[in-house]
Amino acid sequence: MEDFVDAFFNLDIIRRASPILWSGLLQTLLLAVTVVPVGAVGGVLLGLLTSSPNKTVRRSFALWTDFFRGVPPLVLLVFIYAGLPFAGLDTGAWGAVVIGFLLNTSAYYGEILRAGIESVPRGQVEAARSTGLTATKTMGLVVLPQAVRNVLPDLVSNTLEVVKLTSIASVVAMPELLFQARQAQNATYNASPIVAAAIAYFIMLWPVVRLISRLENKVLVARR
User: Fold this and answer.
1) pTM of the prediction?
2) Which parts of the chain span the membrane according to its record (predicted)?
3) What confidence tens digit (pLDDT) does each residue in 67-76 have?
4) Alpha-carbon distance 176 to 173, whole Å?
5) What is the domain extent for residue 192?
6) Residue partners of 216: CB distance under 8 A and separation at least 6
7) What is the pLDDT of residues 27-43, one digit of tens each?
8) Contact (Cβ atoms closer than 8 angstroms) between residue 188 and residue 7
9) What is the dihedral of CA 32, 35, 39, 40, to 10 degrees?
10) pLDDT tens digits, residue range 199-224?
11) Mean pLDDT in the chain?
């Protein structure tokens, strides 16, 4: 038991590794507050385009959404980081992560919002248009607010997944939490920094998990 504790919960090693773990955590938070809004904005645009009355536009962007939902985000990230430089487009680690997350997460946000838009009764749109609202104002003032409310638990759940997915940035040597924890592990030959990183992720994301549960319960109650 003592060997187990020493290998995975060595407080002295965690204390010595805490400066780089802390810097990694800050990098993870910065990455999250960058890629989540970027992905969400892209998702709104895709949600609107895949709900377009124009069949060509709708099908084209539905195909775009399906493609980037189907490509593993790790493969996409490695391709952007290591593949695009051969075409003269060197985005660097930060740019590769932001572009990769924009393409991947916006596809998921877009599909969720498309479902939300389609869940709004057609009568709501017709009633809004009958009052003189333009199609743009109807979408922005009537349809989108209801669509977001209808799929809010799914949106928050997807946001949670996006934050967890930031850990794959370590494969392009971005010094986020997992990368720094692995560096500390390699330097100390001990798994305690990885355990500390896992605990940090849990503490950071557990409130969001509870929020999702509350939202899901409220939606279930509202539908009864």
Assistant:
1) 0.86
2) 20-49, 61-81, 93-110, 187-209
3) 999 999 999 9
4) 8
5) 2-223
6) 153
7) 999 988 898 999 999 99
8) no
9) 50
10) 999 988 888 888 777 776 766 555 55
11) 86
Give long-range contacts, CB 8 A cutoff, 24+ apart: 74-79: 74/168, 74/171, 76/100, 76/103, 76/104, 77/168, 77/169, 77/171, 77/172, 78/171, 78/172
Q: Specify the CATH number for the domain of residue 137.
A: 1.10.3720.10
Q: Residue range 124-147: average pLDDT?
A: 83
pLDDT at 125 over 60: yes
Residue bearing tokens 């109807």: 138
Task: Say if CB 105 and CB 111 are below 8 A apart.
Answer: no
CA 173 – CA 159 distance, rounded (Å): 23
Whole-angstrom distance, CA of residue 185 vs CA of residue 20: 11
Q: What angle do CA 164, 82, 79 make, to 5 degrees?
A: 60
| Residue 203 CB coordination number (10 Å) | 10
| Phi/psi of residue 172, nearest 5 degrees | -110, 25
Q: How many domains does the chain have?
A: 1
* Mean pLDDT, range 176-183, rounded to an integer: 89
Structure tokens at 87: 């075409």
